[in-house]
Design brief:
There is one protein chain. This protein is α/β, with parallel strands linked by helices. It contains 6 helices and 7 strands. The chain starts with a helix and ends with a helix.
């Protein structure tokens, strides 16, 4: 088993999330899969039925007005991992997750902003023909992290 000092930490959030339901489902997965914190950039999180585990009460939740505000407040030593389907992104299947990182997803209809993609230390994508629902995509990334880092 990996102790807390070895496993590091991660946070996950959405830039300009489209629906509060997607946020609630992602937060529930984040709580179940070991996230240290959750966040939004742009559109605000709204309490709704999908967050049945009340994740925002169980772990720190942060909101940032814009990407610059978010980027300037990344935890020290954390690397930004953008989840974006583009040619520069590495396949998730071969990606090595940083021990200390922040995963950033974009809304299904717009993806990550150009600035977010440029500032990300890593970009990852999965093998899929079409874009995935943001809560599904985030859950896959967190599960992959957990499986590869052998968390218990």
């Amino acid at each position: 088993m990996i102790n807390n000092l070895e496993q590091g930490f991660f946070g996950i959030g959405i830039q300009n999330g489209k629906t509060p339901e997607n946020l609630g489902v992602l937060w529930r997965s984040a709580q179940n899969l070991g996230a240290s914190f959750i966040f939004t950039i742009g559109n605000r999180y709204a309490k709704q039925a999908c967050d049945t585990h009340k994740a925002t009460g169980a772990m720190p939740y942060f909101h940032y007005e814009n990407f610059e505000d978010f980027y300037n407040n990344l935890p020290k030593g954390a690397q930004l991992v953008g989840v974006e389907k583009n040619d520069e992104a590495e396949q998730l299947e071969t990606f090595t997750h940083p021990r200390r990182c922040v995963y950033l997803l974009g809304a299904e209809d717009h993806g990550l902003s150009k600035l977010a993609q440029e500032k990300s230390h890593f970009l990852v994508k999965f093998k899929s023909e079409l874009s995935l629902n943001v809560s599904v995509a985030g859950s896959i990334v967190m599960y992959d992290r957990q499986a590869k880092l052998n968390f218990s």
